[in-house]
Amino acid sequence: MIALLLRDLRLAVRAGGGFGLGLAFFLIVTVLVPFGVGPETALLSSIAPGVLWLGALLACLLSLDRIFALDWEDGTLDLLATAPLPLEAVVSVKALAHWLTTGLPLVLVAPLLGVLLNLAPQGYLWLLVSLALGTPALSVLGTFGAALTVGLKRGGLLLSLLVLPLYVPSLIFGAEVARRGALGMELTTPLLLLAGISAGVIALLPFASAAVLRVNLR
Amino acid sequence: MDLRVSDLTVARGGLPVLSGLSFVLEPGGALILRGPNGIGKTTLLRTIAGLQPPVAGRIEGAEDRVAYAAHADGLKPTLSVSENLTFWARVFGAGDIGSALDAFELGALAHRAAGSLSAGQKRRLGLARLLVTGRSVWVLDEPTVSLDTHAVGLFAEAVRAHLAWGGLALIATHIDLGLSEAGVLELAPFKTVLAPVSDDFDEAFL
């Protein structure tokens, strides 16, 4: 399992690995928003949590089809399916590798980009916490979507359509935590729901992903 | 442990292609599968490798013992030859890649990126992967594609060493590998004859 994780991380940072794709997209979105909505600081700071969450979510979506597509094309997936690793472990490791290369960098740069959107000072901590709790769910849900569409030529559109509705709860509660944090309001309920969604998704979805992968490999 | 296949039916795309297939392969034995294109060699091998379920019949002695090699070698172009091989060695829990590199004369290429290898060299690397799996049942689908005669000789040597060690090999190929000890299974007689489709569901609309 560790070998698979290390290989995926190594592939991501080598040429053409796609590391930084999501990060660049996130940067572009948050830099361009102030140009689009105008320089009013009050308006910017009220939309900042939502824009940052939406940017992180779309950046995450961008790299999902790479999770299995390349391994499918070069036959690695067939070989992994016959390897001693259970497929559930393979999809979990894949999701973890995706989070480490896409989700974690987004979490870490979000506070810096918050400055551009005039996020309220007390909001930074909660923005970081909400993204750190929410983005693992995005990676695991995305891995499920990628497993469903593996083997389809240019399945990216279908993948987005399948995965986006599943992202909505995380987006709602994640952005709500960040918004309430910025306003200094009570935020226990959305925080618990966000964490609950992530925990449930991480616990259950690898089994579903492995099952659909088995069907898709036939 | 033997590999036993009894009364097997395999399907591709929901249609049975081969049926009533039975054979037993003992440790140290090799079986060459022959048949025209589209007869179902790949489907049969994928079924035995456990990648798809059989429609009917039983496969015994294959589970968790198969090293499968197909047309795609599962190589990452940005990783070096030894990194690719080390990855598979670690996945299968085996340690040494040196002897596998030597067996297919890849030692000099060990630090080259796999993406810069020629088709034949990639194939040799794909076959070297079999040696680091430590698995006893080799299920090989057209293993000699794009290999030159010398490399085919290396491959035959590797198969012989594997059989001498007590392994089994199931090989679909069109060329003569020079493995005189291997049995040959002609698949054409097992081709499924499709009955004309008469579906009650369709008739309901007629």
Automatic annotation (TrEMBL), chain A:
Keywords: Cell inner membrane, Cell membrane, Cytochrome c-type biogenesis, Membrane, Transmembrane, Transmembrane helix, Transport
Coiled-coil region: none
UniProt-annotated location(s): Cell inner membrane
A GO molecular-function annotation: heme transmembrane transporter activity
One of the protein's GO biological processes: cytochrome c biosynthetic process
InterPro entries: Cyt_c_biogenesis_CcmB, Cyt_c_CcmB_bac
Residues that span the membrane, as ranges: 12-37, 43-64, 96-117, 123-150, 157-178, 190-213
A Pfam family it matches: CcmB
Domain of life, per lineage: Bacteria
The keyword Transmembrane appears for this protein: yes
Keyword Transcription regulation attached: no
Membrane topology note: Multi-pass membrane protein
Cellular component, GO annotation: plasma membrane
Protein function: Required for the export of heme to the periplasm for the biogenesis of c-type cytochromes.
Family designation: Belongs to the CcmB/CycW/HelB family.
Protein name per its UniProtKB record: Heme exporter protein B
Organism name: Pseudodonghicola xiamenensis
Gene that this sequence comes from: ccmB
UniProtKB/TrEMBL annotation, chain B:
Residues of the ABC transporter domain: 3-206
Source organism: Pseudodonghicola xiamenensis
The name this protein goes by in its record: Cytochrome c biogenesis ATP-binding export protein CcmA
The entry's keywords: ATP-binding, Cytochrome c-type biogenesis, Membrane, Nucleotide-binding, Translocase, Transport
Pfam family, one: ABC_tran
GO biological process: cytochrome complex assembly
InterPro entries according to UniProt: AAA+_ATPase (IPR003593), ABC_transporter-like_ATP-bd (IPR003439), ABC_transporter-like_CS (IPR017871), ABC_transptr_haem_export_CcmA (IPR005895), P-loop_NTPase (IPR027417)
A single MF term (Gene Ontology): ATP hydrolysis activity
